[in-house]
Amino acid sequence: MSEISNKDLAELKEKQSHPEKITKEQWKASALAGMASYLDAGSIVALGAGLALFQSYLNLSNTAVGLLAAIGPNAVGCAIGSVIGGRLGDKLGSKRIYQFDLLVYALGILLIVFSFNAAMLFIGTFIIGVAVGADVPTSLAFVGEAAPDKARGKLLGFTQVAWSFGPVVVLWSAMFLADLGVMGIRIVFMHLFVVALVTWYLRRSLAESARWTKAVKTKGSQLRLLLKGSNFKGMVYTAVIYLFWNLAAGTAGIFNPYIIKTLNADSSQALSVGLSSAGFLISIVMTYLVFMRYSDRSFKTRKWLWGIGAVMQVVAYSLFLFMPFTIPVIIINILMFSSGAALAGEAFYKVFSQELFPTMLRGSAQGITFGISRTILGVWSFFVPVLAKTGIGPVAGLLTIFLLISGAVGFFFMPDTSGKSLEQIAKERE
Question: pTM above the 0.85 mark?
């Protein structure tokens, strides 16, 4: 293993003396690492947009379509990749994983682009899921370790902007290319192939995390330590807030166009796509203007952000329990949920997943919690269309309960880690 360089030590000392300053290199590293979120969300939405087209083109049964969705980037494939990738990232270094997994991702994309039978489509979808799953925890660990102590929320929030931007590009591209049928979806996937290769090439210039390079020489990476003490508490906390929030967010991301078009006679395909993409645009604005600006200020500020966001999301879905499923109510739901999710959702999960675990277990912990959440979301997704057939009530009621659980646990058990160095947090949690 190579020794940590004088340059890396100097950069680490600079970060510690100026805990809120973000350098150009840190912005660059965060942007390139954050492209994992773009490719993750983009592939999920692209697959969702193309399911019906591929079903018709390849004569797939409804069971086959359900299986295809389950093995891809939104569920089982991603879960497998995140567990494996997170663990290997801790042992071998994040750069070795998040750099080369994009080549695997690109291979999976090509199989879908040129798929002429079900086998190519299924294999490509599974490969994409595994690759993007491996990329997310390793790339986020890299951002968390490289970020200034009082700007982790800002840089990890920046990756969430990328996550929301991916679906916007895919949704509108799919709509404009809709007249081309399957060829249109192939083009949408081809754009992800190009983005993956460009990101892979640019990531080659990034150096390994200085914190990991230092820690790997002196500390072990024993997975069993995640089941003890503060590590176990951190696992439970991050798993609960993300799992129950992700059930709602995943449902909105995958099924909003379907539910809107199916249950509202006044809607059209263009309107359903437009409303869905509006939710992601709102999330971008709120993450950039509010989360990135205030999430690092103080523990109290974090609790206020989370509390407000959680209440907004609960209200968003409880509206459907008392009001008719009309376009105005749908718009209010999307506005409130998307705004609230930017404040009490995946962005904070990313932050706490970096802050609550030691360097040599950080990727493993997030890989496990991320994998668990994606797997359960995959199982839940099988039941959403069935529940929605009887009306929006059953789905909305369950999502309201899920959001209540995530919101309450996130608020009342939130750890006081804001503005502290990763070393200080680790010492306090020993």
Answer: yes
